[in-house]
Design a protein that fits this description.
Helix content: 25-40%
GO molecular function: acyltransferase activity, transferring groups other than amino-acyl groups
Keywords: Transferase
Organism: Aureibaculum algae
CATH class of one domain: Alpha Beta
CATH superfamily of one domain: Gcn5-related N-acetyltransferase (GNAT)
Radius of gyration: 16 Å
CATH architecture of one domain: 3-Layer(aba) Sandwich
Protein name: GNAT family N-acetyltransferase
Distance between the termini: 29 Å
Largest sheet: 5 strands, antiparallel
InterPro entries: Acyl_CoA_acyltransferase (IPR016181), GNAT_dom (IPR000182), N-acetyltransferase (IPR051531)
Shape: globular
CATH topology of one domain: Aminopeptidase
Strand order of the largest sheet: 1-2-3-4-5
Order of helices and strands: EEHHEEEHEHEHEH
Length: about 180
Amino acid sequence: MKEKYLFTSERLGFRNWTKKDLHQFAKINADIDVMEHFPKPLTEKETSDFIDRQQKHYEKNGYNYFATEIIKTGELIGFIGFAYQDYKTDFTPATDIGWRLKKSSWGNGYATEGAIKCLEFAFNKLNLKKIISTCTAKNSQSENVMKKIGMKKIGEFKHPKLKAYPKYEKCFCYEINKSMWQQRL
């Protein structure tokens, strides 16, 4: 099973997206608890568009928000990985690390485990120098993962893509660079 993955952590496999992921990932994106810190759950069409964008992003950059599975079962639990962000802020353009996992997988340490392995991949294989991560001000779970993986808060900002959604507009930004990563080891 491991051969289909770009890389693995102890329990998780990371790969590019396929159209076969649509149904399972659409269920994750339709869950109101999973999408609590986003303006709305996503439709199946929006999920299909997301997968298309991720496939194109991978072809262009060699990374994306990787489809993430539990190796032992092959179950798709969501994504952990990267996206190049060029919306207008003081800290972009930059590569962002993010995650979205199905509710049944919460509380198992998957986001932290996966994000650590993704950072290792980013710094050692992709030779990226710096990674950022953002979350809404009320998303303490994601902010905790950012802290656990060694990221440092660099500021608060109003997300330019969320202007139409004042409830979500205030966000935090964290970052980690290659030397911070190496010091943490």
